[in-house]
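Handout, section B. The chain below has 118 residues.
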Amino acid sequence: MTKNIDLDIKTLLKNYIVACLNREKARSEPNLANKYFDEIVGYYKCLKEAGLLNELRPLLFHKEIAVQLSAASSLLAIDETAAKKVLIKIVELELGETSFTAKMVLKEWDNGGMKSYR
């Protein structure tokens, strides 16, 4: 990769992380949380179209659970085992709405849902 592409990927990943954190902060404001979710999906689509979803793998180990949750959801299609492991861990942490979201992601994925991530 060229230096410009590396920089663009770094910027994209940084923006992805910021959107994940902002979405978590905005949970009590559904319209704002949905705005950040749409941003996350947009970054996901950019990475997918460029064949760069693997760049999200390190985020499975990010210090913030909100980032781990989004990265795991985004990686289900290319590494279901690793993504599910993280999602199950988040469910087991019993973190209220965050754990509930992870549980619903697992359920939807197993039922063939989450079409924007397939």
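Note. The chain has a mean pLDDT of 92. Compare this with the example in section A.
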